[in-house]
Design a protein that fits this description.
By secondary structure, this protein is an all-alpha fold. Among the domains are: about 100 residues, Up-down Bundle (Receptor-associated Protein), CATH 1.20.81; about 80 residues. The chain is built from 14 helices and no strands. The chain starts with a helix and ends with a helix.
Length: about 325
């Protein structure tokens, strides 16, 4: 009973801290904050001064992180996942989650430092895994919306719209994330950035091969001329066929991919459960007389699991 109370109290404490961090974070991205005073009324989003102004500690940590390449990568990852947090706030969340899970693991695991380390490692992995999952989900949604965006642009161009007017129509007619990203493109061009620069910024936020093909076609047409509507219509057909083929391949290979991930994580999950449930059984690998044999067996098992995972993912990784 005491163990359940301790676990529940620790979990509630971690969730409370996460909620506090999220509530203190901005509800808008940094680029929206900078553009809010200059954009048209159609794109304005109401915010309070308290939401716009970051705390001095956040600004100080952000200024430090901007000096390093990994800090810039964190900012790009958050932008690609559309998570409205600053790098300093994201790092604070990782520290809080790691500390909370380390405390819970320390209490549950017999107040062992190894248990705390396991909890801290899991706490550091979970937020980054969530960000990567959101990146992949948003990228997939964007790619699926790209043919509809191209058709809308093609119809606008054939109706006499300029390229910027067609992009503005995309920002108003299509659902997120397509509308959000092209709204930013339109905002940047309204502030004086060239279309090429604005589209490059879009590609940094959405690292899609299909989007890269579209942007290249637009840039080439602006330099050498040609019928942009026909070019984008052809690209739209190509992307639709690619999406269809990828969907068929994903159906055929999904079982292999999920089996590979599950079988690779299963030994680690079992070792973690055994550490907390039956530590004596797990520590038999590291008994004084069998230490060398246990290390060799675990090393061989790790190499075999890693090799199997790499082979299964390579077999299922079919490029279209």
């Amino acid at each position: 009973m005491t163990l359940i109370l301790v676990f529940g109290g620790g979990l509630a404490f971690v969730l409370l801290l996460i909620g506090i961090v999220i509530s203190l974070s901005e509800e808008r991205s940094l680029i929206d904050d900078r553009f809010s005073h200059y954009i048209d009324e159609d794109f304005e989003v109401e915010t309070t001064e308290e939401e716009k102004e970051p705390t001095p500690i956040t600004e100080w940590l952000d200024s430090i992180l901007e000096r390093y390449q990994w800090g810039k990568r964190i900012r790009e990852s958050l932008a690609q996942a559309d998570i409205q947090l600053r790098p300093a706030e994201f790092l604070a969340m990782i520290v809080i989650v790691s500390f909370g899970l380390a405390l819970i693991a320390w209490l549950i695991g017999g107040r062992s430092i190894i248990s705390a380390i396991i909890g801290a490692i899991v706490g550091g992995i979970v937020p980054r895994t969530y960000v990567k999952r959101q990146q992949k989900k948003r990228l997939t949604t964007f790619n699926n919306q790209l043919p509809d965006m191209l058709n809308l642009v093609v119809n606008g161009l054939r109706a006499g719209y300029s390229t910027m007017q067609a992009m503005e129509a995309v920002s108003k007619e299509l659902p997120p994330p397509m509308s959000d990203e092209f709204r930013r493109v339109v905002q940047e061009m309204q502030l004086g950035l060239s279309m090429e620069r604005a589209l490059d910024n879009l590609h940094r936020r959405i690292p899609s091969d299909d989007l890269d093909l579209t942007i290249t076609a637009i840039n080439v047409q602006r330099e050498v001329g040609g019928n942009l509507a026909e070019i984008l219509d052809t690209i739209s057909y190509t992307i639709r066929e690619r999406i269809r083929i990828k969907g068929e391949i994903q159906v055929l290979t999904s079982q292999v991919m999920y089996s590979g991930k599950f079988l690779a994580l299963l030994p680690l999950i079992l070792m973690g459960l055994l550490w907390f449930a039956n530590r004596e059984y797990l520590m038999s690998f590291f008994a004084p007389g069998d230490l060398l044999c246990g290390i060799i067996l675990l090393s061989i098992a790790g190499v075999m699991v890693l090799s199997g995972y790499i082979i299964m993912t390579r077999l299922a990784d079919i490029e279209v």
